Amino acid sequence: MKYLSNVAKNYPASVIREMFEIARKYDDVVNLTVGEPNFDTPKHVIEEAKKALDNGYTHYNPNAGLLELREAVASFYGKYNQGYKAENVMITVGGMEAIFLSMMATVNPGDEVIIPDPCFANYSGQVMMIGAKPVSVPLYEKNDFKIQAADIEKVITSKTKSILLNSPSNPLGSVLEEKDIIEIAEVIKKYDLIVYSDEVYDRIMYDGKTCPSMAQLPDMRDKTMIINSLSKSFAMTGWRLGYIVADENIIANLPKLQEGIVSCVPTFIQKAAVSAMTGSQSVVGDMLDHYKRRRDILIDGINEIPGFSCLKSPGSFYAFVNIKSFGKTSMEFAKELIEGARVVTVPGSAFGKMGEGYLRIVFAVSDEELYEALNRIGAYVEENYIQNENGKMERKEG
Ligand SMILES: Cc1ncc(COP(=O)(O)O)c(C=O)c1O
User: Fold this and answer.
1) pLDDT in tens, 172-182
2) Which residues line ligand 1 (CB under 6 A)?
3) CA 239 to CA 294: how far, in whole Å?
4) Whether the predicted model's global pTM rises above the 0.90 cut
């Protein structure tokens, strides 16, 4: 199509959608692909949105967002001890726009932006949209899928401007520890880069794990742009409410960019977001209890099936399952599981080259769906494969 731009032609196609298309042929699949909570948005948030509509919060509002929401976000980050105020906060359309706007404000065409591999599939597309070049850093299972400072340093060039970090991670479930953050910060400072710290899963962690942020380090505050949203923590994916927390001098330049993109985030949604941020936080903990149980069901269960192995995810609601012993590409094997077991997963290759040999499985679904998926996969593997003495899975004859 001659009218299309390079970005339109090259934006990575959604593999999840492709898996959906394959799955549509069957009416009895268990779908473990969708990265969103299977809970409803808390009632008090919904009520607040209705009230806001009735009270006339239906007009434009400041590009940067409603002051009371910016204050509520700043107050949440009081825990980082960096003196964040409303001037450090920009309200966006989901975490997605927060990532885009952060890069738009700090990256020029031709610059290089470092991204993890595997990572959230939109990162590379978003870097391309601003005319910059995504440069991948490989993440390894032997390092618990945590990005390593030394590996980051290897890909830095004179064109490197910034780096996207994501902890807890989609699709890996990994969480960076304080030691990792400190080591990475040394590299960031050495090359004077900017960090986009994607913390959208910051409240979804298990076994007492905490997730230190780059922004908490005293000398990293002004080089770190925190990306977050209410999507995952409050089961509000459809509300499209996110934000950036960063140095006030960077934030001061974002409203004019927002003006040119969406003008502002819907006003009544911001009113509802205030009630999510300032109201009872127990809803977050309640969901977490369910995710933890489901993580254990899925990961313990999948590790019992011959040929599969999976690290226990300390955060997010994803399991990144090693299927290398089957000797197939992750796309081939994901298709095989749909056709043979009627279970839909996402091939790891959808998240980057390093995802080859893995499947991403979402456990933000019901216990019943997880048990059903495990039974189906287990039965399929038992019927069709045999494990040889080297642990490799071979297809049964006939
Ligand atoms: C790592 C990561 N960042 C950002 C987002 C965007 O979230 P939203 O735009 O719904 O806030 C997602 C959504 O799946 C994600 O997994």
Assistant:
1) 999 999 999 99
2) 35, 94-96, 120, 166, 170, 198, 200, 229, 231, 237, 242
3) 25
4) yes
